[in-house]
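Could you show me some protein's one-letter sequence and the numbers that encode its backbone in two labelled lines?

___
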Amino acid sequence: MATQTPIYDLTLLLSMSAPEEERTKILADVESAIGSAGGSIERNQSWGRRPLTYRIEHQSEAEYHLLQFTGPPALLESLSHSLGIADSVLRFRIIKVIPGTPPAPENPPPVVAAVAAAATGGGES
């Protein structure tokens, strides 16, 4: 029986205080690393600037990206290492998509008003 190549989700939160060129370079480096390792990108979505649930490094917003890709296990270690030491990456998470999981939505999830208010310091008292 042939085994199906696993698909991974990479959720990437980039610092809004980093220059646009640096954020673009990080995404290009991730795409290049996936291709160089023999993987392929199945989906690459930019969810844009969104509020964080809580501040990270004194920042209340981040640029969100979702990449779905295939690749060997060594690629996961390489991506984790390079994203972990990149100053412009606030957070990232790589998870293996379990077969039968519904596909990611075509559009980014909506921003919840309470989370947006909390992240910007607004909200009810």
Summary: The two ends are 60 Å apart (CA to CA). The longest strand covers residues 40-56.
